[in-house]
């Protein structure tokens, strides 16, 4: 009772990370669709508005205490058109751009102090020297370094942060924030895309923000001009243009919810190095532009294969509902690595063949563009993985490179056990993650209290 009282006025939200299983590079163009899996690693925000304030200045304190006690303290007010100022000139462009856009969109007048606590699940960062703290509901890792210094695994921490923080702040300005309501999700998504693009200083495809909002989806992007056409923040027309963009314009994105077929799960293996997506993207763009006719042909080929994968996954979803016995036999064949039986399943064969063809094309692009999309060491690793029991297929998700690998495997398989002590898997840490259907959700504020260090 005492605790419940102390939690009054708090709200909590979480949003998932992502793995782009099919559609890397192509998804930058609205012509092509991508298959995006939302992950169980989540970013969390607990928010409380303490009203009202004597002055007309809002004060927004954001803390991320897992990262050596990181915190940012912003002030802003209507007179300065909600330009956020950080007390100690500490930079966090993602937090800053969320504040700019949410405040400009809502134009709140009655100043208040707002406190937000950010938490992030383990999957987002390498955990080498962290300390675990837990309560009865959740546990988080605490690092001795600041957020910019802890190595990332590439699951989309900034997109998760932007989505969850946007949601938390909207909940301060809106009484109703039901996240089952599509309109509310669209509001979160649109504001978060604008903030994320502005913070990154570029317009990516936005699949990470879409997955953090909507969950596992087949995604088609918005036209980049929707965001690049916005004027500067201080332009007097920014507010109305932002409001129109967020509320009235059809972004034409696709975000149809998907789920891996029953009995299959996603496994991610961190290879502990990482790649710079921006550099890879610009090298691939140069390659494409050097011969656009050929580039288009290659993209169209890869796109057909991406679509084949998506169709086969849908067919598997149907099969496991219509003929669960047959489906079960197929899964057991995968579990036992019985090649002749696996080949009798047209869906499994289609997925494996399409992935092989896509990977082959990306290896060619790797050679021709100099962008390490599938470097030989990752090819070797994926080949070794494909020989393990229970593995349907595997890719280097997203932009590829030296990032984590993603495998689709049977729910029963245990890769940790199969790979332990084996030389060819020495570089891999299997991440404790799974696919999740849903995007941003409301959480119980009570679950984020009184964390105790494990000894
Ligand atoms: N837990 C967190 N607390 C505060 N800021 C965070 C957190 N996680 C991510 N960020 C912000 O996102 C940035 C990382 O974004 P980015 O380089 O795009 O990585 P990613 O690929 O994981 O999204 C950090 O430098 C920081 O500004
Ligand atoms: C090349 C891309 O299509 C996919 C990149 O996927 P990653 O998952 O590698 O992305 P980051 O988290 O931004 O590093 C670019 C894009 O879609 O924006």
Automatic annotation (TrEMBL):
Lineage, top-rank taxon, reads Eukaryota
- The enzyme's E.C. designation: 2.7.4.2
User: What chemistry does it catalyse, as a reaction equation?
Assistant: (R)-5-phosphomevalonate + ATP = (R)-5-diphosphomevalonate + ADP
Provide one Gene Ontology biological process annotation. Answer: ergosterol biosynthetic process
An annotated Gene Ontology molecular function: phosphomevalonate kinase activity
Q: Which GO terms describe its cellular component?
A: peroxisome
The biological pathway it contributes to is:
Isoprenoid biosynthesis; isopentenyl diphosphate biosynthesis via mevalonate pathway; isopentenyl diphosphate from (R)-mevalonate: step 2/3
Q: Which UniProt keywords apply?
A: ATP-binding, Kinase, Lipid biosynthesis, Lipid metabolism, Nucleotide-binding, Steroid biosynthesis, Steroid metabolism, Transferase
- Family label: Belongs to the GHMP kinase family. Mevalonate kinase subfamily.
- Annotated protein name in UniProt: Phosphomevalonate kinase
